From TrEMBL:
GO terms for cellular component: cytoplasm. It is found in: Cytoplasm. SUPFAM superfamilies: DBL homology domain (DH-domain) (SSF48065), PH domain-like (SSF50729), SH3-domain (SSF50044). The gene is arhgef4. This is Rho guanine nucleotide exchange factor 4. Keywords: Cytoplasm, Guanine-nucleotide releasing factor, SH3 domain. It comes from Sander lucioperca. PROSITE patterns: DH_1, DH_2, PH_DOMAIN, SH3.
Length: 552
């Protein structure tokens, strides 16, 4: 939320008008100012200090603490200014400090404390001072909604200016220099940003139609997000390509003529003093910003407001868009890990895992019986989308695996088997499930050691089918180039003739510490810093290490 600025001296009548645009949350900030340092000290002394979540923190990283807006979090460690360690019931983890606010009165939420101040029988001077900050004419909540609406419109207009500068200031000039840039190279650097620019101009035009200039708090903009929710998915392609763009641009910036050329483009277009890689990050930041802005808008929209239901639906829609983009990005980041995993398996046969799959869903050890031989075999199973691979452990080196086969999950049905006599194999079983091919020519009986393990496997098989259908609905797939590059990288890490090194996952070390390592990614609330956050370590190998008992 942007805040107005004023001089330290007593303002004139004209200057005082600036104070009316100051966020009402400044009241809370003033109250917090002297309390916050004291409370940080209390945390370090071991005292119990609570914070209230301002926004949802959705995470797929088990090092981080997920929560919903309004949740109360016990702050355990606040020594780092960006990431704090906290606890909600039995869950602990890191969370962005910018997503919460410390309670001034540790026995009640901030809103109640502010309401208490407003309702108190204070002197006229104190009441007038509070009214000055909140502004005249509008109740606090409506003034806050006005501020959020104005921020959304302002940032959207600024964003369009950035996109225009990139398309006309950089891409247009680059295309004139065929001696320096190939079209494929430009596609790698700029991705589909021209498509995004065209879409965002249309989106802003629709927002402007719904924007009430005279009374911004009456604006009804939620429907704009709902009408364009599928259009926002074009950001997925851009976000997935962004790491490749950074690599390509980094190579060019090592050559002086490209450095001078890009700087000349910036000056010619009269752009702000931000490097090209900073401009190229703005679409990634923008798609993450929408859920935060809509959450803030919903917070200050009365349920009776005509825009309430649309804003609520828009918030869920944009969260789903961001979740879809993050999921696709995670999948693409993991394909290198899958290729490396395959290269570590001895005696591999048949096509590569990446030829059909892109995500590890579950893994673990099961006893396997297959017809016609009903001999029980201990195997490690790895369930990917579309297929399941099973391997045998080395008798001496329990962390070494030998490929033994795979099952096509697109043509298998999963059957829950009751404890007792199993008719197909004519044996007594416990904690068992059965995989039968739709053609009826294959039947595999899998037995877990404990009932809860069996239930987790049944859930995993259901998740695999859901994910396959979701990928079909959203059109997600790997390109041949991505598959080949991942396998090429894996082969380079395991040159022919050299033994394959099998190492314990890095997270095994981290989880032995008092706290896992501090996340290196900037909290989402800082998305407009125009500096690329460091990428956090993938949890792929941690999942395998956690789910797979490589060592007994």
């Amino acid at each position: 939320m942007s805040r107005g600025k004023c001089n330290a001296t007593k303002p004139s009548h004209g200057q005082s008008q600036l104070l009316w645009s100051v966020s009402p949350q400044l009241v809370v900030t003033i109250i917090q100012f002297f309390e916050e340092a004291r409370q940080i000290t209390l945390i370090s002394d071991g005292s119990v200090v609570y914070a209230e979540a301002l926004w949802d923190h959705v995470t797929m990283d088990d090092q981080e603490l997920g929560f919903k807006a309004g949740d109360v979090i016990e702050v355990v460690d606040a020594t780092n200014k960006e990431w704090w360690w906290g606890r909600i019931m039995d869950s602990e983890g890191w969370f962005p400090a910018s997503f919460v606010r410390l309670r001034v009165n540790q026995d009640e939420p901030m809103e109640e404390y502010l309401a208490h101040l407003e309702g108190a029988q204070a002197g006229e001077q104190s009441r007038a001072g509070l009214g000055l900050v909140l502004g005249p004419g509008l109740p606090c909540k409506e003034q806050m909604r006005t501020n959020v609406i104005n921020e959304i419109m302002s940032t959207e207009r600024d964003y369009i200016k950035h996109l225009k500068d990139i398309c006309e200031g950089y891409i247009k000039q680059c295309r004139k220099r065929t001696d320096m840039f190939a079209e494929e190279q430009l596609r790698t650097i700029f991705g589909n940003i021209e498509d995004i620019y065209r879409f965002q101009r249309k989106f802003l035009k629709d927002l402007e139609k719904k924007f009430n200039k005279e009374q911004p708090h009456l604006s009804e903009i939620g429907c704009c997000f709902l009408e364009h929710q599928t259009d926002f998915q074009i950001y997925s392609e851009y976000c997935n390509n962004h790491p490749n763009a950074c690599v390509q641009l980094s190579k060019l910036m090592k050559v002086n003529k490209y450095v001078f050329f890009f700087e000349a483009c910036r000056l010619l277009q009269k752009m702000i003093d931000i490097s090209l890689d900073g401009f190229l990050l703005t679409p990634v930041q923008k798609i993450c910003k929408y859920p935060l802005q809509l959450a803030e808008l919903l917070k200050y929209t009365n349920p009776q407001h005509r825009d309430y239901k649309d804003v609520e639906a828009a918030l869920n829609a944009m969260k789903n868009v961001a979740r879809l983009i993050n999921e696709r990005k995670r999948r693409l980041e993991n394909i290198d890990k899958i290729a490396q995993w395959q290269s570590s398996i001895e005696d591999w046969e048949g096509e590569d895992v990446l030829s059909r799959s892109s995500d590890l869903i579950f893994s673990g050890e099961l006893s396997k019986l297959s017809q016609p031989q009903a001999k029980s075999q201990q195997r490690m199973f790895f369930l990917f989308d579309h297929q399941m691979v099973y391997c045998k452990k080395d008798l001496l080196r329990r962390d070494m695996l030998y490929y033994k086969g795979r099952m096509d999950m697109d043509h298998m049905e999963v059957i829950d088997v009751e404890d007792g006599k199993e008719k197909d194999f004519n044996i007594s079983v416990k904690n068992a499930l059965k995989l039968r091919s739709l053609a009826g020519d294959q039947v595999h009986l899998l037995c877990a050691k404990k009932p809860e393990q069996k239930q987790r496997w049944l859930g995993a098989f259901a998740d695999e089918r859901i994910q396959v259908q979701h990928d079909r609905d959203t059109g997600f797939s790997l390109t041949e180039v991505q598959k080949k590059q991942a396998m090429f990288n894996a082969c380079k890490s395991h040159p022919a003739g050299k033994p394959k090194a099998v190492t314990r996952p890095y997270y095994d070390f981290l989880l032995r510490q008092k706290h896992p390592s501090l996340p290196t990614a900037l909290p989402q609330q800082q998305v407009f810093m125009l500096a690329e956050p460091k990428r956090k370590t993938s949890t792929f190998w941690h999942n395998i290490g956690r789910l797979t008992p490589f060592k007994k």
